[in-house]
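User: Reviewer 2 asked us to show a designed sequence for the structure in our supplementary figure. I'm pasting the structure tokens here. Could you produce the per-position amino acids so we can include them in the response letter?
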């Protein structure tokens, strides 16, 4: 989660700092300027990193929050596909892995009978 959130933060900073780095699409169902998308990715990335840190500390609620935030990040990257396809596909895969890892659970520290 920390890795995926950090990559989303970088994506957001790149979109905010340099709007002409990404492809502009005119014929799309919804319109956000790239700075708006950058803020969305930056905020989501920060929240995912914070949830990831809380998962490391063992907070039970952080797993559920992490699944929800990774889902939001997955949707945001799906909608980001026309702007920067390669990076969006990579982060979609990372978010799918995050959701799988958080839902799969672990039996560490417990006696299995």
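Assistant: Here is a per-position design you can include in the supplement:
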């Amino acid at each position: 989660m920390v890795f995926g959130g950090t990559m989303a933060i970088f994506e957001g900073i790149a979109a905010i700092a340099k709007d002409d780095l990404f492809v502009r699409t005119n014929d799309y169902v919804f319109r956000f300027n790239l700075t708006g998308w950058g803020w969305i990715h930056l905020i989501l990335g920060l929240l995912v990193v914070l949830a990831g840190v809380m998962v490391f500390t063992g907070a039970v609620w952080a797993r559920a929050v992490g699944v929800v935030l990774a889902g939001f990040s997955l949707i945001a990257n799906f909608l980001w596909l026309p702007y920067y396809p390669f990076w969006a596909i990579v982060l979609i895969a990372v978010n799918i892995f995050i959701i799988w890892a958080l839902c799969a659970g672990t039996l560490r520290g417990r006696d299995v009978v």
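For the response letter, you might also mention the following. Residues 39 and 53 are 21 Å apart (CA to CA). The chain has a mean pLDDT of 85.
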